[in-house]
UniProtKB/TrEMBL annotation:
SUPFAM superfamilies: RNI-like. Residues 19-66 form the F-box domain. This is F-box and leucine-rich repeat protein 18. InterPro entries: F-box_dom, FBXL18_F-box, FBXL18_LRR, LRR_dom_sf. PANTHER family: F-BOX AND LEUCINE-RICH REPEAT PROTEIN 18, F-BOX/TPR REPEAT PROTEIN POF3. GO terms for biological process: SCF-dependent proteasomal ubiquitin-dependent protein catabolic process; sclerotome development. The gene is fbxl18. It comes from Danio rerio (Zebrafish). One of its GO terms (cellular component) is SCF ubiquitin ligase complex. Pfam families: F-box-like, LRR_FBXL18.
């Protein structure tokens, strides 16, 4: 095109035909549109369309910040060319999760002399390469990197160590027991640790090497933020204890953020734990911004000390309640202004065990305190109430339902609830069988007839409801309506049955037995799912452990309503002895035109040609994960699907089948599509195989953490600055 963009004709019955071109838009509008285009595509392709776009693409606002995270089409050649063209303008470069880029491509980052922030998490980085990069980046203030086996701090040049000494923010993912580059970072103000060391290092005595000599002790004197997130395992707990030991030598003044996420048993708290809590935000003018501690470290006294300095914006007290300590009670009775609170994780925190216990250690939601919370925290954006039980008190009527309370939090963006929170009433009692039934005929057919699921209401989609029968649908979703009306802009919703455990492990064998479901969750089925279709802005949806789903027809209406859904995770819907919503799922997938990510976990799932044909209608799909105990798959159907959906770069399947069949399919897919899709990650392995934990450790961490492993993600991370 010669300096013009093709004209679009706008017609109307009431006005004459008007010729409108994109050139008629202001530069400001066009720049806002161009910001949604990936940097490599913008600079290498869009800028060549016409002179006007070429001029706009020179705008520094489009070049200063380059984010290639999840840009799976950015291959080595594209990234090298991008850095060559705009290296002088780049100040922020995010290559987080770009595991497919070659080391020679990472070397090109040295061109970007003005870099202030660099994220290389997941990239191939050696000590020598890091030294070369740091020596060229004299303005660097923020760095993120992985520290793997073979990393040697002594291989860094003097210029590289000087660059580290100027860093103010560091994010380290430790794949091996190490202090990484922390000993050189004497000016750090923010330190983020992700401890991902394998248990193999415990046998090799990896942590013992860090205890020798004081030269490797980290520098914390200027620290304002410290966070550490651990993968399961003794090695990572020991490694955290070594990092925290420094607090006992010197407590940093003015620490405003302390976030420690430790699965399983926590290491002993530092000796200076009390002093550390006292010092948080004690500096005049500072307030606590974020707090999360392991459950055994937190009590009412410690939480009270922190709240005495002000309410944090992020508070995670997941599973921290204990006899005599209710975190929500302490928060509400602290006498502080709670309006700064934006993100609150109360997962597994209740007022005590259920009177009618649904399982060992089950907590009952403290609904009165939740109501008080809704009044005190009007600006709450993220709230996690999962891993508890809510059994509605019928005497309070629909106005007293939890959904009505949550509907007052009009600013909610993400919400996690237990499945039973959507139940309007207790499950119907199982009726005695008709005494007139022919017992002899029933005994002859015993084991041949399908079991009747008594007490689970049958839902019919709108298309099957005759005129005058629409009250059925309204009644089933009645309690949800206040939530839909009060929180119209909810973008992330998790409904997870209390006690749910995924069959997909981390460092241990796959779970072979499914936990019992809450009896109230049987009252939440297709009708409630259909009502959720009213959430028009929903982008991420997780449904797990919903035994009340019969045929899955409500899933169809849900996905019809949520047209812009980007991420969908389904786990253990309906019966666990057979997958009873296959047909509904196939139809529902036809409405997922914007879906990028699908995770499906269901025992006895058959990933056949019909499923992959329906899935092929999701033209935007990027990542797929299937987990099924005793599940089956058809290799030809998987291959055909990958051929038709050229944007899929992750295919993880953990099902049944032999090891040979799984490896054969994996090799076929990698051989066929790796050249055209550099970011392709294919892992196909028997779910119940004893070596699965070893296979998991070899996956890209970005896929493992974000897709393959199931977990509640609402209010799990502090809000980004």
């Amino acid at each position: 095109m010669n300096n013009q963009i093709e004209t679009a004709q706008c017609c109307s019955d009431n006005i004459s035909q008007v010729s409108v071109t994109i050139s008629d838009f202001s530069d400001e509008i066009l720049l806002n549109i161009l910001r949604f285009i990936p940097s490599h595509d913008l600079i290498l392709n869009v800028s060549r369309v016409c002179r006007k776009l070429r001029t706009l693409c020179l705008d520094k606002s489009l070049r200063v910040h380059v984010h290639l995270h999840k840009e799976y089409t950015a291959n080595d050649d594209a990234v090298k060319q991008l850095l060559k063209v705009i290296s002088a303008d780049i100040q922020t470069l995010n290559l987080n999760g770009c595991y497919w880029l070659a080391g020679s491509t990472v070397d090109q980052v040295t061109r970007c002399k003005s870099l202030v922030s660099l994220d290389l998490s997941g990239c191939r980085l050696t000590s020598v390469r890091l030294s070369h990069l740091l020596s060229s980046l004299s303005s660097l203030k923020s760095l993120a990197l992985d520290v793997g086996p073979g990393f040697d701090l002594h291989q860094l040049s003097a210029e590289g160590k000087s660059a580290l000494a100027r860093l103010q923010e560091l994010k380290q993912t430790l794949l091996t027991p190490s202090y990484g580059v922390v000993p050189c970072c004497s000016a750090l103000r923010r330190l983020h640790l992700y401890l991902e060391a394998s248990e193999v290092w415990r046998e090799a005595g990896g942590c013992a090497q860090l205890m020798v000599g004081q030269s490797s002790v980290p520098h914390y004197q200027n620290l304002r933020w410290f966070s550490a997130r651990l993968a399961p395992g003794e090695v990572n707990r020991t490694l955290l204890a070594l990092y925290l030991a420094v607090f006992s030598m010197r407590v940093p003044e003015g620490l405003t953020g302390l976030v420690l996420s430790v699965p399983g048993p926590a290491p002993p708290p530092p000796v200076a734990m009390t002093a550390l809590m006292e010092s948080m935000a004690s500096t005049v003018g500072n307030t606590v911004s974020a707090l999360q501690l392991p459950r055994t470290w937190l009590d009412g006294a410690i939480l009270g000390r922190v709240l005495a300095h002000g309410c944090p914006a992020y508070l995670n007290v997941s599973r921290c309640s204990s006899p005599g300590f209710n975190p929500l009670h302490v928060l509400l009775s602290a006498g502080r202004d709670l309006t700064p609170l934006r993100s609150l994780n109360l997962r597994g925190c209740g007022r005590g065990p259920l009177s009618e216990s649904c399982g060992k250690g089950d907590e009952e939601m403290d609904t009165d305190s939740v109501k008080a919370l809704a009044e005190c925290c009007p600006h709450l954006n993220h709230l996690n109430l999962s891993a508890t039980h809510y059994h509605h008190n019928l005497s309070t009527g629909q106005d007293g339902h939890l959904c009505g309370t949550l509907g007052r939090l009009t600013g909610l963006c993400s919400l996690a609830l237990p499945v039973c929170a959507l139940a309007q009433s207790p499950p119907t009692q199982i009726n005695n069988q008709d005494s007139n039934t022919d017992l002899a005929s029933r005994s002859l057919l015993l084991g041949l007839k399908k079991t009747t699921r008594i007490g689970v209401p049958t839902y019919r989609p709108t298309s099957e409801i005759a005129v005058g029968q629409g009250e059925e649908r309204t009644d089933r979703g009645l309690c949800i309506q206040p939530l839909l009306q009060g929180c119209p802009y909810l973008v992330e919703l998790e409904l997870i049955g209390a006690g749910f455990s995924s069959a997909m492990p981390r460092n241990e064998p796959a779970i072979r037995k499914d936990p019992a479901a809450c009896s109230w969750s049987y009252s939440v089925g297709d009708g409630e799912l259909a009502a959720l279709g009213g959430m028009k802005f929903l982008r991420k949806l997780t449904l797990a452990h919903l035994p009340g789903v019969l045929k899955g027809t409500g899933l169809i209406e849900l996905l019809q309503g949520c047209k812009d859904l980007h991420s969908l995770s389904l786990a253990n819907l309906g019966s666990l002895k057979t997958m009873n919503y296959t047909q509904a799922l196939l139809e529902a997938l036809s409405y997922c035109t914007q879906l990028r990510e699908l995770r499906l976990e269901q025992p006895y799932f058959n990933a056949n040609a019909a499923f992959f044909e329906a899935l092929s209608q999701c033209g935007q799909l990027r990542r797929l994960c299937l987990v099924s105990r005793h599940g089956t798959f058809q290799p030809a159907a998987v291959t055909a699907f990958m051929q038709s959906c050229s944007d899929v770069i992750m295919c993880h399947m953990f099902m049944g089948g032999t090891l040979v069949a799984c490896k054969t399919l994996q090799k076929t897919l990698l051989d066929s599509f790796s050249v055209s899709r550099p970011a392709l990650s294919v892992v196909i392995y028997p779910l119940l195989h004893e070596d699965l934990a070893h296979v998991i450790r070899g996956m890209p961490l970005c896929h493992l953490d974000e897709m393959t492993l199931f977990k509640s993600r609402v209010a799990e991370e502090p809000m980004r600055r």
